[in-house]
Each structure stands twice: as C-alpha cells, then as structure tokens.
C-alpha cells in the first residue's frame, strides 16, 4: 500500500513538472523578450560625480543612445576628474559644490575653490539647460549661418566650463569650455558642438607653451590633421581684445558650429579635447606652484587679470548668451572672473623686460608647434 502511494505521488510530481515545462516553452519567447527589455535599462553609477546629474536618473537610464544623455554624462565625468586633479595640487582645500535648478528647465553644478594655497580661484561648472531661446540669441545664430524660423525656439544646451586663476604668477591661467546645442525650428532639430581650451600666462615660459600646444595638437590629429591649425588660428582670432591690440593669452584651440562629419564623430572629438585638459595643464602647475615670485610679478599678474575681465565682459559670446538667457544664474556665469584684478592708467612695460616679452607675443601670436620641432633638432 505504501509503495503504491509513493508511485502515485511521484507520477503526480512528474506530470506537474511536464505541465510547467510546457508552459515555459510556450511563453519562453515572451519572457526572454521582456527580460531583454529590462536589461537594457542600466543603472547609472553617480558615485564618482561631484553631485547628482541634472536630468532625472530614470530618464538618463532609459535613453543611453541619445546625444543629450551622452553629453551630460561626459561633462559630469570631466568636471569630477578635473576638480579632483586640482584638489590633489591643493592638498587640503576642497571644492564647494553647488547644485542648482533653473525654473525654465534644467540646471547645473557649480564647483568653486577660493583662497587656496595654489589656486586663488578655481571654478569648474556644468550646465544642462532647456527652454526657449532668448530673442537676442536667434539673430546671433542666424548671423552664423543657422537657418532658424521664428523667434521663440525650443533649445537644449549642455556644457562644461572652467577657469583657473592660480596664486603664483608663474603658473598660467587656463580656460576650457566644451558644449553641445540642439535647436528645434519647425520639424527640424539642428545640432552642433563647440568649445576650446586656451592658456593665459603672466610670464612667458617657452617649455610650458610648447607642452600645452603639443598636447592639443596630438589630440586634434587623432581625428583630423586639419583641425589643429584651423582651430589654433580661430582661437587666436577669437580671444582678441581689439581695443588693446593684443590677445588675452597664448591661445590654444577654439571652434564652434561643428556638425560634421557625424554626430558621433563630433562627440568623440569633443570628449578627447575635454579629456586632454588635465595632461595639458596639471604638469605646468606642478612645475611652478612653489616657485618664488616678487611683488613686481604679482602686480603684473593683477594687471593681466584686468585684461581677462575686459575680454570676458565685453567680447565673450558665451558670457553674453548666459547673461541674456531667462533664468540665468549670474553667480555661475561670472565665476570666470578673478578674485583680484587691477587697472593702471596708460601702463606699458619697457621693451626687453619679461613683461614686455609676453606683450610682444600677445600682439603677434606664435606657432608653438613649429617651435617645438626646432627645439628637438638642436
């Protein structure tokens, strides 16, 4: 009797298993498809960022292939890596992190370090904003060849921007900005990238200039050997102070309206340029941050910072766009200004002095890559 009951129970289990397997085979395709759908949505690791992304994490996770998502994640990474590299040089001072939101759409993360041992003021910002273009921006974009219809056009912009003002006059100031724009005009979405990296020394150091420009050229050459000479000249022409007859610094690269050969290739180029900031600049900081300097050199540094302020407030297109954008956050836009600057009436350093030699280069931009080739032959 016991044996018979065991046989019946085993048979029952067997048939139940067979029925379950049959159901699994029947619905296996549907189950696998659903599993694949959910597996696409990957969790974004935010632990390495300075703050949480501006865009909702669920939205970012569900749109990994969109350029808006790729750009936001890239600038978050660049911001964090650069801030941490600067903090290493400071040793003890850390960035203040200010995450803000814009009522009209989007927001940003402002990271500022002030009154440090190495950096008097260092700002590394990202912004991810959307809304309608301010009326003044539309004619400006049309003048650059954008075919935009209407006056209140939906736009999206994401970018990372940094300006580093060191304590020591022998350490140069660096500025970089890399950005992505989308504008919807009618049924068409127009997109482009822009940006650049440039160096503003207070005292000319040939080795520094060669290293900086060579790093940028190598980065450009990986994508197009025509980029560096074109974007180097563009940089010299853009960072110009016409009323002074001099450039703001010794240049670098600058470009705008980049929309070819493809969106992915443009993004790869911009990503590499942003990633080249640390190797182009941090070695210069390490060389000079503890060097001794005089009161004369400090005074000259403050005067050159005055020129920096003049360019940013009078000529810089990015500053103007930010200030005229509804809901603009002025503290973040004016982050590029130094803590201290100076203006002296009719100041002009004598020829032959270190200050005069810098001014000569600022009035007559130099090809630093050719200079490096000549140095290597000697």
UniProtKB/TrEMBL annotation:
Coiled-coil residue spans: none
PANTHER family attached to this UniProt entry: COPROPORPHYRINOGEN III OXIDASE, MITOCHONDRIAL (PTHR10755), OXYGEN-DEPENDENT COPROPORPHYRINOGEN-III OXIDASE, MITOCHONDRIAL (PTHR10755:SF0)
Family: Belongs to the aerobic coproporphyrinogen-III oxidase family.
EC class: oxidoreductase
Originating organism: Exocentrus adspersus
Pathway: Porphyrin-containing compound metabolism; protoporphyrin-IX biosynthesis; protoporphyrinogen-IX from coproporphyrinogen-III (O2 route): step 1/1
Protein keywords: Heme biosynthesis, Oxidoreductase, Porphyrin biosynthesis
GO biological process: protoporphyrinogen IX biosynthetic process
The enzyme's E.C. designation: 1.3.3.3
GO MF, one annotated term: coproporphyrinogen oxidase activity
Protein's UniProt name: coproporphyrinogen oxidase
Record-linked PROSITE patterns: COPROGEN_OXIDASE
Subunit structure: Homodimer.
GO CC list: cytoplasm
Position of the signal peptide: none
InterPro entries noted in UniProt: Coprogen_oxidase_aer (IPR001260), Coprogen_oxidase_aer_sf (IPR036406), Coprogen_oxidase_CS (IPR018375)
NCBIfam families listed in its UniProt record: PRK05330.1
Source organism superkingdom: Eukaryota
């Amino acid at each position: 009797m016991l044996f018979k009951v065991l046989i019946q129970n085993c048979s029952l289990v067997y048939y139940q298993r067979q029925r379950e397997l049959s159901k699994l085979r029947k619905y296996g395709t549907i189950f696998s498809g659903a599993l694949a759908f959910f597996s696409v949505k990957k969790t974004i690791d935010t632990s390495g960022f300075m703050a949480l992304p501006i865009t909702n994490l669920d939205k970012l996770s569900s749109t990994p292939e969109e350029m808006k998502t790729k750009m936001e994640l890239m600038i978050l990474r660049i911001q964090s890596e650069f801030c941490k590299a600067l903090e290493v040089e400071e040793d003890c001072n850390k960035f203040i992190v200010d995450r803000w939101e814009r009522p009209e759409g989007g927001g940003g993360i402002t990271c500022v370090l002030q009154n440090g041992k190495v950096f008097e003021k260092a700002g590394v910002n990202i912004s991810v904003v959307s809304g309608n273009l301010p009326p003044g921006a539309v004619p400006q974009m049309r003048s650059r060849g954008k075919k935009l219809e209407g006056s209140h056009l939906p736009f999206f912009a994401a970018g990372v921007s940094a300006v580093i003002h060191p304590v020591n006059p022998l350490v140069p100031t660096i500025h970089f900005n890399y950005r992505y724009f989308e504008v919807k005009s009618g049924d068409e979405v127009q997109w482009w990238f822009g940006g650049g990296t440039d160096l503003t020394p207070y005292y000319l150091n040939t080795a520094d200039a060669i290293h900086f420009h060579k790093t940028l050229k190598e980065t450009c050459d990986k994508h197009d050997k025509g980029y560096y000479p074109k974007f180097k000249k563009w940089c010299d022409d853009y960072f110009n102070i016409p009323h002074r007859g001099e450039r703001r610094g010794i240049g670098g690269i600058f470009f705008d309206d980049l929309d070819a050969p493809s969106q992915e290739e443009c993004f790869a180029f911009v990503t590499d340029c942003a990633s080249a900031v640390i190797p182009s600049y941090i070695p210069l900081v390490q060389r000079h941050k503890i060097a001794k300097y005089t009161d004369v050199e400090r005074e000259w540094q403050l005067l050159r910072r005055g020129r920096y302020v003049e360019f940013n407030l009078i000529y810089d297109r990015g500053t103007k766009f930010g200030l005229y954008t509804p809901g603009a956050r002025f503290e973040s836009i004016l982050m590029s200004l130094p803590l201290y600057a100076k203006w002296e009436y009719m100041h002009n350093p004598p020829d032959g002095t270190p200050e005069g030699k810098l001014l000569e280069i600022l009035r007559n931009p130099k090809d630093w890559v050719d200079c490096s080739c000549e140095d290597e032959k000697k």
